[in-house]
Amino acid sequence: MDSYNPDNWNWKELFTGDDEDISLNGVPNEYLLQPEVNDTGGSGTDNTVTMTADPRSKRKINDKAYRARCKENEKSQKEELEKLAAENESMRTENESLKEKKVTMLSPTLEEAAIKINQLRSENQRLKRTSDYQGIVLQAFTEKMSSHGKFQNLHDEAARSSESVIQDPRMQEKKRLLEERSRLENENRLLELQNQAYFKMIQDDKNPTGDEAD
């Protein structure tokens, strides 16, 4: 049974040459392992590749490492896109919230401004109508003063003529007709100005906004 105990074996006799060191001279070159290459591919992944002297095996190993790098880059880009999409959605939500808040804050102010503008517009139209009416009244008063002066001049002229001419019925009638004509012209002018003022007031009442008709 001692022959099956490895401690009792003569290991040197198992190899050619009892005093020779063990060597790999009989091993084919394609089975010799080459130095290891650590390729991180810029992605942080440690791709340890065992290179051999076989070009086909080397190409397969390189292709595998390249696919691993591409997969890692694609994963990284996808995560970056998902992150950007989430940030974009968050900013869009915040933008909509700020927009609604702005509208809510400005709506009362805009309504108050619109009411104030309408009030000012109405007041402006009222003042314009009043100004137009006062202008017509002033014109009528000016015409009245002018007509009164003209009538007074005619009256004075008639008085002077009556003193220098012979008092006969025909001259008296002519004087009366001149005075009557002057009085009627003055009244007609005043009535015309009053009618213009009334017409202006009626037009303003029909069109309170003051817009002119086409």
Short structural summary:
By secondary structure, the protein is mainly alpha-helical. It has helices spanning 55-164, 169-206, and strands at residues 36-39, 47-50.
Overview of this structure, please?
Helix 1 packs antiparallel against helix 2 (169-206). The protein has two helices and two strands. Strands 1-2 form a two-stranded antiparallel sheet. The N and C termini lie far apart (133 Å). Among the domains are: 58-147; 150-196, no CATH class. 69% of the residues lie in helices and 4% in strands. The protein is rod-shaped and about 155 Å long. The chain has 214 residues and is mainly alpha-helical. The chain has helices at 55-164, 169-206, and strands spanning 36-39, 47-50. Residues 35-100 are annotated as: Disordered.
